[in-house]
Amino acid sequence: MKYRIIIEKDEDGCFVAECASLPGCVSEGKTRSEALRNIRDAILGYLESLRKHNEPSS
User: Fold this and answer.
1) In the chain, what are the domain boundaries?
2) Of 8, 26, 34, 38, which has the fewest beta carbons less than 10 angstroms from its beta carbon?
3) Which pTM does this prediction carry?
């Protein structure tokens, strides 16, 4: 499954990555690539939690 990721730079200079289709799935990093790696991990954890609780993933 593919998810659209939005990455924006915040006022402190960190990059914030958000997966809008998974409410509350947000991560950050010092660089764009770090934020992207972190949001991928966050998505995997989010989906694992949904499976564990028998919740739909879409």
Assistant:
1) 6-52
2) 8
3) 0.87
The pLDDT of residue 1: 76
Residue by residue, DSSP assigns the chain as: -----EEEE-TTS-EEEE-TTSTT-EEEESSHHHHHHHHHHHHHHHHHHHHHTT----
- Maximum pairwise Cα distance, the chain: 38
Handedness of CA 48, 2, 10, 30 (dihedral sign): positive
CA separation for the pair 54, 36 (Å, rounded): 27
